[in-house]
Amino acid sequence: MPGTVYIIGAGPGDPDLITLKALKVIKEADTILYDRLVSPEVLEHAKPGAELIYVGKAPGNHEFTQKEINKLLYAKALTARTVARLHGGDPLFYGRGEEECLYLITRRIRCKIIPGVPSPFGAAAEHLIPLAGRDIASNVLFSTGTFKGGTKISVEEAMNIIRASHHSVFLMATSSYKNIVKASIIAKGPDTAVAVVEKATTPESRLVIGKLQELLGNEWIPSPPAIIFVGGGPRWRLEKINAQYY
Predict the structure, then answer these.
(1) 107 and 127, same domain (yes or no)
(2) Engineering a disulfide at 64: which of 68, 76, 115, 193 sits with its beta carbon 3.0 to 4.6 angstroms away?
(3) Sequence-distant (≥ 6) Cβ neighbours of residue 238 within 8 angstroms
């Protein structure tokens, strides 16, 4: 009988944010495939002799294509009882976990999803940027900043998203950062609050927060991975919180 493949969310970076269920499977797995945003400390829980395979994809540098990863998962499931596929964040939140699971179950391989803390939730909690709530935002809209094939989100596309929400969150947005800033100024005005979190929940995490007018003419570009928050959450954080005590 083929083994079972577990598509696992390893959390946003901090190894302590992984779930107990995910940790249990990692300790039992015969083979573990992991991407570049998975903390090395998480892999230390693998049992002795477990096969560890790096299948990470960096912007513009894909050692494995998604099709190759799908095929590798299938091949490993034919010989291993338990296969763990680790994604940074949550596998169903821009993680392509659904593509991997679909590939497997259509080939009669058992596949289970174990959720993880998505990166924007980790970044928001780390820096006290509420995503939605009373007096903050009645809705929040998540968007990628980079579409399939590496196409950057345009100013017009970002503008439509920002206008449609009280709080907008952009992931995978380093390359399209300037377009998002321009769109935010057009859609909401230069006094709109914005927050950028680099490398959320890791020791290198950094928060840049302020009003859009403060970023005008600034040539700074965030380092990947970065998450951009526009609107209600950053505004509340700027108005209400003295960062000295958080």
Answers:
(1) no
(2) 68
(3) 193, 209, 210, 211
The structure tokens listed for 62 are 């894909």
For residues 213 and 144, the model is more confident at: 144
Residue 63: give the domain boundaries. Answer: 4-114
Statement: residue 244 has pLDDT above 80 = no
Task: Give the pair of three-digit tokens for residue 196.
Answer: 């950028």
Amino acid making up residue 112? K
159 is catalytic: no
Determine whether 30 is an active site residue.
no
Strand order in the sheet with 226-231: 140-144, 167-171, 226-231, 193-198, 206-211
Clarify whether residues 144 and 157 are in a common domain: yes
Q: What is the DSSP letter of 200?
A: T
Identify the active-site residue in 57, 178, 182, 211.
57
Q: Are 41 and 93 members of one domain?
A: yes
- For the cut 80, the answer to whether the pLDDT of residue 144 exceeds it is yes
Q: Is 1 a catalytic residue?
A: no
Buried-exposed string 95-127: b where 16+ CB fall within 10 A, e elsewhere: bbbeebbebbeeeebebebbbbbbbbbbbbbbb
Which of 90, 152, 159, 172 is an active site residue?
172
**Active-site residue (options: 14, 35, 159, 188):** 35
Q: List, for residues 56-71, the tens digit of each pLDDT value.
A: 876 655 578 999 999 9
Residue 142, CB half-sphere, CA atoms under 13 Å: how many? 12
Give the end of a domain, one of 93, 114, 135. Answer: 114
